[in-house]
Amino acid sequence: MPVSTGSCVLSDMVHSGAENEKCSACGSSPPWAMTSPVSVYSNSNTLDTHIPSASRESLKMELLAEVSLLPGEERIIDKDIIYICPFSGAVKGKVLITNYRLYFKSSEADVAVMLDVPLGAISRVEKMGGASSRGENSYGLDIMCKDMRNLRFALKQEGHSRRDIFEILFRYAFPLSHGLPLFAYVTQEKYEENGWNIYKPIEEFRRQGLPNNKWRITFINKNYELCDTYPTMLAVPFKSKEEDLRRVAAFRSRGRIPVLSWIHRENQAVIVRCSQPLVGMSGKRNKDDERYLDLIREANDTAKLTIYDARPNVNAVANKATGGGYEGDEYQNAELIFLDIQNIHVMRESLKKLKDIVYPNVEESHWLSSLESTHWLEHVKLVLSGAIQVADKVSSGNSVVVHCSDGWDRTAQLTSLAMLMLDSHYRTLRGFQVLIEKEWISFGHKFASRIGHGDKNHADQDRSPIFVQFIDCVWQMTKQFPTAFEFNERLLLTILDHLYSCRFGTFLYNCESARDQHEVRSKTVSLWSLVNSKMEIYLNPFYTPESGRVLYPVASMRHLELWVTYYIRWNPRIRQQQQSPVEQRYKELLALRDEYLKKLEELQLSDSSPSSRLANNPTPNTSSPTTSTPSQQYTHLQTPL
Amino acid sequence: MEHIRTPKVENARLLDRSSGQRKASTGTLYLSATHTIFVENNPETRKETWVLHSMVSSVERPPTIPAGSQLILHCKDFRVFQILIPHERDCLDIHTSLVRLSRPEKYSELYCLSFNPNVNKEEREESWNFLDLMGDYKRMGVPNNLWVATAANSEYRVCDTYPSELFVPKSATPAVIVGSSRFRSRGRFPVLSYFHQDTLAAVCRCSQPLSGFSGRCQEDEMMLLAIMKSNPGSDYIYVVDTRPKLNAMANRAAGKGYENEDHYTNIKLQFIGVENIHVMRNSQQKIIDVGEMRSPSMTDFLWGLENSGWLKHIKAILDAGVFIARAVADEGISVLVHCSDGWDRTAQACSVASILLDPFYRTIKGFMVLIEKDWVSFGHKFSHRYGHLDGDPKEVSPVIDQFLECVWQLSEQLPCAFEFNERFLITIHTHVYSCQYGTFLGNCQKESRDMRFRERSHSVWPQLWKDRAEYTNPLYKADLSQSQGVLRPNTTPYCFKMWKGLYNHMEKLTPPRQSPADFLCAVREESQQLEKELTNHQERIAALTGKPITWEKIKVPRRRMISHLRQRHCGPDPPSTYTNPFASPASVNGDALSSEPVTQKAQTKDATLTLSLGLYSHPKSHNPDDFSTCSDLESGVADLSSRSSSSGENGKDPYIDEAAFTTA
Known about the structure:
The complex is a heterodimer of chains A (641) and B (664).
Chain A: H1 7-11, H2 20-25, H3 31-44, H4 53-60, E1 75-85, E2 89-98, E3 101-106, E4 114-118, E5 122-128, E6 140-145, E7 150-154, H5 161-173, H6 201-207, E8 215-218, E9 234-237, H7 242-251, E10 259-263, E11 270-274, H8 287-299, E12 305-309, H9 313-318, E13 334-338, H10 344-358, H11 367-374, H12 376-395, E14 400-403, H13 410-422, H14 429-442, H15 447-451, H16 466-480, H17 489-501, H18 512-517, H19 520-523, H20 527-532, H21 564-567, H22 581-606, H23 608-615, H24 630-638
Parallel strand pairs in A: 11-14, 12-13, 12-14
Antiparallel strand pairs in A: 1-2, 1-7, 2-3, 3-4, 5-6, 6-7, 8-9, 10-11
Chain B: E1 8-16, E2 25-31, E3 35-40, E4 48-52, E5 56-60, E6 69-75, E7 80-85, H1 88-101, H2 111-114, H3 121-128, H4 133-140, E8 147-150, E9 166-169, H5 174-182, E10 191-196, E11 201-205, H6 218-229, E12 237-241, H7 245-252, E13 267-271, H8 277-292, H9 298-308, H10 310-331, E14 335-338, H11 345-357, H12 364-377, H13 382-385, H14 399-413, H15 422-434, H16 445-450, H17 453-456, H18 460-466, H19 468-471, H20 500-503, H21 516-544, H22 551-554, H23 562-565, H24 584-589, H25 591-605, H26 612-616, H27 618-622, H28 627-644, H29 656-663
Helix pairs in contact in B: 5-6, 8-9, 10-11, 10-14, 11-12, 11-14, 14-15
């Protein structure tokens, strides 16, 4: 079983994906990476009973010796424990808890189970069974995770072993509830590249051709006074004055005024994002807001401005009761379209249902109708088709305004997906980072509230997998356009792993003002430092750059799939391919081709008489393959597709 | 021709519903002896649509609407065509003709049997010798000291639906064979289907025993004992009854049933629960409906899929194969498989098991052998099941569709394990129904012999083999671990997907998707080309350094360029066979007919690839001295440029690359 460095996240059912870069550092084949999926599998299934002898060797050694800790990571406690594995039954072993992770390794020779869970992924820790508990393994801990799995450990009843572990876990899994710093502030990791430099708002505006004679950059929010959840630098219509902006802010929920997210280079149509207008029950009007939207329309001279309200119509109406609402007929030259995307609570429950049918066991008897009853794919479909509508409108030259209630959940999904469809730059590895930094992080998607970093309050109604859903949509797009994205599935998995891990500052806090206050950029490491210091493992070999191409995915049920390699990845029966076989084969063939090219070149050098003729006749338009260098060949292959 | 009253209708309109076409195109409809042909009026495209009569499963004539009279053609490959005809009388004529033409009453009406059987006589005879079934048994190591050939069924004396050449346990005497066959439904006694050399375990097949409630037969018991004995080291065999247990029990009332474990001391009986042909027929209709739904909601789609039960049935068949493969490969126990008559579910289970067990059957050639062996030779009733002739609709059932789908599901899960691709499976599916070749005609070997199909038609396999470049899976590598040994698929329900390529023509064209497989093919081809170039260089160096060299040696076989140009869906229409089925309409358009559809399809379907690869070869072909490579490279240019024709993935694409290419 070949293990590539790419195997860890994908192939290891028990290994946390957050650790992928570590195992590549510790050599080509960490024993657990080879053995755990295989042997666990052999327990639940008679498929493969082969256990490499290397793992037996290593088991004789100190179980926990091989854990390589991150700089700044400290051991807190280790203990004998029994892991109640849902796939291979109770497994004896040792658990190690650090200030960053929970690590478990089995001590049984025939079941090589390994767990490596960042504490940040834990949403809830509970004691299971009491002093009076009878029955084997009925006394211990239940751990619920944010990443679609649960863990159960059994302990001996004697001593205070459970109390110790429980308290330590509780403390370090929820540091913010205990006055401790998040691990991102503790880690001492160093990377070649500083990921915080990936997104510079001014550069991104410049790339889009801004400012221009219709749009200007304003610093009105430089102290977060206009809107405390917006970034400091905003692009607004050239004709709008600063006091207009203030008056508009007063009429938009949380001051999130309409600002530019993206502009189409050719037709100058724009995507503008904001929050709902404060219409209220009485149907208040605000002339400034109306004029402001009209300025947006005027900027590229179209007859109508399209406002996409991401919510279902009823929800938008209901919001009037709490002072919100939607743009009515008083907005002349504007049309309003509802996109019927449900709110964060519906999404949370939907994913919870999905977890119920895939973990630990995948529903068998009525798989399709169970999947249907979660409605997860339906939500994905609605988000995607909403984004398609936005993208289509913009590419046909019409400016759009997108909002939901507060403009930080569904709005972020729609604008970022539409931008991904419209702008091939965001489909590159670095461009995608910019997209996330810009549309999600800087525009105040409330990561802290939605994920609950370091917070023990697991039942918080603010938590919701909005960002996960966005990444799912991106994955659906990569499935439909396998050559359009520079990055691969592994990047998406890594992003989701570190959405929870708290090892990087990237997804911490709700908005830029909070990040400034907590000095995230100076005191923590960016996830993009990790990614960009090891880019090659996140690259899609089939990527073919095509600037100017708009992607329209099919948001039809027949073309959307459940993202099995994410949602069901803990199940050992998901055959974990070390790497997509297609990718692998392609790379092999590319290598083979390069080898031939090299040989040919060598031949030409040595065999001067016949090949000189070859070398001398390249016609201007057709570059001869036999005379160009391999690197030229490479670009060649990529350009035409 | 006697059935065609109106051979030509002008100003007809055609809507290809299955390809998601939104607007009807106007053109001329022709009815030939073999095809319905629609030629677009648009002088720029003049697109042609050919529908073979034998591919039409039903012709609907909905009420006339103001715009004209309608005809809806449902095809056996699940395509749907809607035709609007200006005059009702024409429509009626066409309808009557099509109903008659699509339901031939006797074999002689099938056009593969009615056209000059003596054209290409040698080629035809050779085509039937393309596969060598005995050779396959030899490959398995049979005959040997455990399994021997028996002459018992020569001239089909014992069982008229079995092949004449059969393999049985060495210890089975003719008396045992004859006795056992009398105790088995339709005389289909236990014979060898697959022998696994690694474990010496065998897969055998038969029909249900005529046991009723208490009947027994000594010879049959001896037969099963003989099977066990032919696997040294095992003390029992599995008897896999692929039916649901209830069905098997119900059969006892009719004097049939299953093996009584009290009578057969050395067996373990296992029911798998694959439903019968009637359930499968209904289930397939439901999944076809799901495939034809227009923009279904999530609920409609998933519930439709689940309620069809189709994927559940596919899983059951795959489970049967997995059970057999495990018994044979992991436990080393021989398995006897049967259902009722042993020609539907048994064929499915045995062939799926063989695919899982033996890498050879996962190659293009091996897959042909497998179908020829487990299906054709063992008397799967092709003509009944696939409605080749007008007959009992209750006999029709998608049995081999399910087998092909099992293989497709496997290939989705284990993408490197098969030498062939989805297109190969779909092409076989098409030809099972198309009656273009004699391979699948008739219901058993005897009938095929009696009807002299071999003398009157061609075999499909050499044709597929000739086109194998189209059917090759670029991911396949014989030495890859996944390609070798026994396949162990995951058969949990979430692993089964709807086979969009077969059931959902509707959304296939939107958007034209880029496929990594195309990339792989491109690089692979390029590598092959480079390899050849390299060889040429080396040869030339050899020549220049004074060693004599024969030019024949470096002559590179001309690359097949046609394969890339041919349409991708590989349906039977337009005809690409050696028989020339053209009737009158062909002569109307003359040469244009035969050449145009080919190139057009290539342009519309082969959208994706690739320019620079094509450019590679230009300079070399200018080199007048380089005779040795010229032919090869030219063809290389041709086939590459054909594929490069359009890189526009959708309407918004600025076609930059295409422009670049045309300037080049």
